[in-house]
Design a protein that fits this description.
Elements: E1 22-26, H1 30-42, E2 46-50, H2 53-62, E3 67-71, H3 79-89, E4 96-100, H4 105-113, E5 118-121, H5 126-151, H6 161-178, E6 181-189, H7 192-199, H8 201-218, E7 224-229, E8 232-240, H9 243-257, E9 259-263, E10 266-270, E11 272-279, H10 286-303, E12 308-310, H11 317-332, E13 338-347, E14 352-364, E15 368-370, H12 372-382, H13 385-405, E16 412-416, H14 419-424, H15 427-438, E17 445-449, H16 451-454, H17 458-471, E18 474-480, H18 489-492, E19 497-500, H19 502-506, H20 512-528, E20 531-534, H21 540-548, E21 553-554, H22 565-578
Parallel strand pairs: 1-2, 1-3, 3-4, 4-5, 11-12, 14-16, 16-17, 17-18, 18-19, 19-20, 20-21
Antiparallel strand pairs: 6-8, 6-11, 7-8, 9-10, 13-14, 13-21, 14-15
Helix pairs in contact: 2-3, 7-8, 8-9, 11-12, 13-15
Length: about 575
């Protein structure tokens, strides 16, 4: 018989009325079937009919009933046979009332031995029949409610730990049979104890009920959500074919769990941590999976709030590192682990560092300096690029303002903006705020965007770029030549600078195709009046060739790797001496 779903339910022993009771009747005599149905409907029951024993068996296997009424004798399968099969096939059989014209001791014994709850003989005494049905139905309703109280949490109506164990065992069995995966997630509200202590347990209970509803709305009907104690929930996710799907599910649930709720007069920002373990990678039995998910949960909470952590040691090293980086990245900004480095942009005719590019780096307390190509894609996917990008823009502009106030001869600073950041962040409002606070002339600021960022939703892009450009901000195309073939955007959009991708600079001395491409870009930029910057210059031979091609500015390790603000000052002094 299908188990009850995850929806909240009223767990009350008083919920025993006829209107909520479903009865199945099976008889091959149409006149008896019609009469039984008429009597039961008049009493307020919901009635389902079956003309044969096999039909009754199928209905019982796919539906819940408070009572099944079977005729003793039916042509394909007797009511006694159906009763026997039901008692062996499913755990929670409905009580069965056998209707029979036989009232000898052997027939009565046979009915009870098959698993029947009671019997009534023909011709039927309808008063006795109605009383007997009422008694059985009320007993069954009381039993079901008591069973729900035993297996469900009375506050949220969710399955409790006892039912979780049963569901997890069944899920493992199905996964083994179908060669799929099962995920077990442990979910714990961050700082719930503090909420209980400051607002009271009644407000804490409201939060738990709200959170259970929020989670139920976010999961599939086939998943099992349970409350296993206090502020701890668990979630069983079945039919997993790819581990990547669980990463997406965890990310989705992290976003769902983080929300604002008003409790009393207080607006509370809720976050939760999750520990995740997988069958069969992390264990083949219930106890191991429960233990490993709990270990993963504690690891997530140790790392900070609103994080999820996989236990699985069998995830690839790259995937596992990515998950750890994602978890840590959430707190990196608050913990001031992100730092802004600077790389000079050198005027090639004079050798003077006229500007610089601001580049974010992650100084992890345990793993050291993490390069941007590892964490920027994660920030993009998760949306963390928005606060990260805001931090970089604010930090770089403040540093530039400080240098200008100290009369350091730096003409401009360029800042990278990712595709998602450009699309979702209010850059116009952010720069207005920064320029006002730091008294910066916008003409000293350059925004670097890739071609893909510019050509996503072109109308929106053009409008946004025009507003930024009208403020005085210059627009630079990063990695030019590696993106889209259509160049019509160069005349439509307010672009000031093209940065030649380092892949072309690498081959400028050895690859005729790279040289031809750089020549073409140079001619295009000259015709359109755009400034050119060659990226990735690493030695004097490349530098001389780039100068011969008439390119305005260069960047690369020939002058310096990206460095801290203090190191940049030393670099400027060295460049001034060597020019």
């Amino acid at each position: 018989m299908p188990h009850a779903d995850n929806s909240n339910m009223q767990l009350s022993l008083n919920n025993t009325d006829a209107s909520s009771s479903r009865i199945l009747i099976a008889d091959d005599d149409p006149s008896i079937l019609l009469l039984l149905k008429h009597i039961l409907l008049a009493e307020g029951y919901t009635v389902t009919e079956a003309a044969t024993g096999s039909e009754a068996l199928e209905l019982c296997n796919n539906n819940e009933y408070e009572l099944a009424i079977f005729d003793f004798v039916m042509p394909d399968m007797s009511g006694i046979d159906v009763c026997k099969i039901l008692s062996h096939q499913i755990n929670d059989t409905p009580p069965v009332l056998i209707v029979t014209s036989l009232d000898d001791d052997a027939s009565v014994d046979k009915a009870f031995q098959s698993g029947a709850t009671d019997y009534i003989t023909k011709p039927i005494n309808w008063s006795v029949f109605k009383n007997r049905v009422s008694r059985i139905v009320k007993a069954e309703q009381t039993r079901k409610v008591a069973r729900r109280l035993e297996h469900h949490d009375p506050l949220t109506g969710l399955p409790n730990r006892l039912l979780l164990l049963d569901r997890l065992e069944s899920a493992i069995y199905r996964a083994k049979r179908n060669n799929t995966h099962v995920a077990l997630m442990m979910i714990d509200i961050d700082n719930f104890k503090l909420i209980n202590e400051t607002l009271g347990h009644d407000k804490g209970d409201l939060l738990l009920q709200s959170l259970s509803t929020r989670l139920l709305d976010a999961i599939r009907e086939t998943d099992t959500l349970s409350r296993i104690g206090g502020d701890e929930f668990s979630l069983i996710i079945e039919n997993i074919e790819r581990i990547e799907d669980i990463v997406q599910m965890a990310e989705h649930l992290s976003n769902i769990l983080e929300h604002d709720i008003t409790l009393g007069n207080q607006n509370i920002h809720i976050k939760a941590s999750m520990g995740i373990t997988l069958y069969p990678q992390d264990g083949n039995d219930i106890g191991t999976l429960l233990r490993n998910s709990d270990i993963a949960l504690h690891k997530a909470k140790d790392l900070g709030s609103n994080l999820y952590h996989f236990f699985s040691p069998d995830l690839s090293r790259k995937a596992f590192r990515r998950l750890n980086l994602e978890n840590n990245l959430r707190n990196a900004i608050d913990n001031k682990e992100l730092v802004v480095f600077y790389q000079p942009k050198v005027e090639l005719t004079t050798g003077k560092a006229r500007g610089m590019e601001a580049l974010v780096r992650w100084q992890h307390p345990e793993q050291g300096l993490i390069p941007p190509d590892e964490f920027i894609p994660i920030a993009e996917e998760t949306g963390l690029i928005i606060p990260l990008g805001e931090y970089v823009i604010e930090t770089a502009c403040k540093q530039f303002c400080q240098w200008q106030n100290n009369n350091i001869d730096i003409n401009n600073i360029s800042i990278n903006v990712s595709a998602r950041q450009f699309k979702e962040q209010d850059l116009l409002g952010l720069f207005k705020k920064i320029f006002s606070e730091n008294d910066i002339d916008p003409s000293h600021i350059e925004l670097e965007l890739t071609e893909s960022a510019l050509l996503n939703n072109e109308y929106h892009t053009e409008s946004k770029l025009n507003k930024l450009h009208d403020m005085g901000i210059k627009i630079s195309i990063d990695d030019f030549g590696t993106g889209y073939a259509s160049l019509s955007y160069l005349k439509r959009l307010p672009i000031d600078i093209l940065k030649i991708d380092r892949s072309f600079t690498d081959g400028v001395l050895t690859d005729p195709d790279d040289l031809a491409i750089i020549n073409a870009i140079t001619g295009l930029a000259t015709a359109l009046g755009l400034q050119l910057v060659a990226e990735g210059i690493e030695d004097i031979e490349q530098l001389n060739k780039i100068i011969d091609l008439g390119i305005d500015y260069g960047q690369g390790f020939y002058w310096s790797q990206p460095c801290s603000a203090d190191q940049y000052m030393e670099l400027l002094q060295r460049l001034a001496l060597n020019k």
